[in-house]
Write a structure and sequence with these properties.
The protein has about 300 residues and is mostly helical. Helices cover about 75% and strands about 0% of the residues. It is built from 15 helices and no strands.
Length: about 300
């Protein structure tokens, strides 16, 4: 940013400080003023960087959707790889918020490419994790596993907190379970569960226990699957996570049916039917095949 004025640099510094202290509206105002200063200087690259900085705050305020057009324009014209990375990364975030995972994944892939070009370690970490999440949601399990592995390798360099590392480790574990490497996946998710239990972030454990239930099912360990599933279900109810409750009930029904426990399977299916009030043949449908072979728990 050789063309940056002293005023621009000061505004950006103050905005970053406000953002780090959670003063989001103040940060937004300062980044906007910095953007105006860049425009006054007539520096297009500096203006684009300032705009992308402003998008960081807009994302936190859940107001980024209106910026997607400009983000795409910045991505097409940016010569600075870091600015291009920011544009691609936040465009992917917009599409994810809209529920368009295919488009989110496409831009996450672009962001990964730009992160490689700029070489910034934090950009590499955040892109690897974002790319992995969207690939996972799109059921591209092998691609997601590669990206999560990269994120975990980069995490010590960029001082990522233990909770974030544990969530990424569980995501990698689930991916490995989905590509036939259940023992490795179970070990990773088990490590994640232990770390999160130590941290005390119980609200994140429901999904991890759900994944461990899935892994135990893949290994044919039906009693263990039911233990993990019951723990996941209890926490999902406590923290109001309906998707985890629904998915876990499917897994528990599978485990009970595979263990030939008709009473338990009927109980789980009955509880599950509350999520599908208009699906009259739901129980027969679920009895016909193993649900775990066709659902993506993270979609």
């Amino acid at each position: 940013m050789t063309g940056a004025s002293e005023r621009y640099l000061r505004l950006t510094q103050l905005a970053q400080r406000a953002f780090s202290h959670g003063r989001l509206e103040r940060a937004l105002s300062l980044f906007s003023t910095a953007e105006d200063e860049a425009k006054r200087l007539g520096d297009r690259e500096l203006t684009d960087r300032a705009f992308c900085n402003r998008c960081v705050v807009l994302l936190e305020l859940d107001r980024l959707d209106g910026a997607v057009g400009e983000l795409k324009t910045v991505l097409m014209r940016a010569r600075d790889p870091f600015t291009a990375w920011m544009a691609a990364y936040y465009t992917a975030q917009v599409y994810e918020a809209e529920g368009n995972i295919a488009r989110a994944l496409a831009y996450a892939r672009r962001a990964s490419e730009q992160a490689e070009s700029c070489g910034d370690r934090r950009a590499l970490f955040h892109s690897a994790n974002q790319h992995g999440v969207f690939a996972l949601k799109d059921s591209c399990f092998g691609e997601a596993a590669e990206r999560f592995q990269t994120a975990l390798e980069l995490a010590p360099e960029v001082e990522v907190d233990e909770l974030s590392i544990s969530i990424t480790r569980d995501n990698l574990g689930y991916c490995l379970m989905c590509v036939g490497r259940a023992p490795e996946g179970m070990a990773l998710s088990g490590d994640a569960a232990a770390a999160i239990e130590t941290i005390g972030a119980r609200q994140y454990l429901a999904e991890v226990y759900q994944d461990l239930c899935y892994g135990a099912l893949q290994l044919g360990r039906f009693d263990e699957a039911r233990e993990w599933g019951e723990k996941a279900l209890a926490l999902a109810h406590e923290y109001e996570c309906p998707s985890v409750s629904r998915n876990t009930l499917m897994l528990l029904a599978d485990a009970a049916m595979d263990a030939e426990d008709e009473g338990a399977s009927e109980s789980y299916l009955q509880a599950l039917s509350e999520y599908y009030p208009d699906f009259r043949g739901m129980k027969s449908f679920l009895r016909a095949f193993n649900v775990r072979d066709v659902i993506n728990l993270k979609a």
